[in-house]
Amino acid sequence: MKKTNISGTGDKRKVNPDWFTNKTWMKVLSEKIKAKDQDIYHVHFKNGSRTKLHQHNGNQVLIVVKGNGSLEIFRKYGSSKSNFKIQKTEKISLNEGDVVHIPAKTLHTHGSIDKKTEFSHLAINILPKKNTTYKTEWYESDFKTKVSKII
Predict the structure, then answer these.
(1) Model-level pTM?
(2) 19-28, 60-69, 109-118 — which one is most confidently predicted on average?
């Protein structure tokens, strides 16, 4: 049995800046507790930061820890893997204590909506099958109508 704590900034890890719109950092909790069936992150979004558009090969659960944010779901139009049209189909407000399940292969973005306060959540990425790798596909987009490339 292993134990860790989500509070504070110790053990924080920088994230790939190509995957976020502003300052973001995270703690990889699953490494600390030696979890094998899921990846668990505590993600902090500053100054209105949010993820770029992306989808996962497994399910994801977000648990809001601090602040206000949003989850936006998109629909893909076209057959190209890296250059296609999108349409927002749903916008969900995320507040402290909220829990949301995002099914595998759902095109989405999430993060802070307020440039003055921080937003953070726990992200639990559930492996699609035993002994497989959880994969995320990231996209460059205008968050409105089009995706221009895979990042």
Answers:
(1) 0.90
(2) 60-69
Q: Which residue has the tokens 């094998």?
A: 36
Q: Kindly list the distances between the CA atom of residue 97 and the CA atoms of 55, 62, 94, 111, 119, in Å, as whole numbers in the listed order.
A: 23, 10, 8, 15, 12
Distance CA 19, CA 99 (A): 22
Residue 51's CATH number: 2.60.120.10
**Structural domain for 18, as ranges:** 14-70+94-134
Give the angle subtended at the CA of 92 by the CAs of 89 and 93, to the nearest 5°.
150
- Give the C-alpha distances (Å, rounded to integers) separating 35 from 31, 86, 117: 7, 35, 31
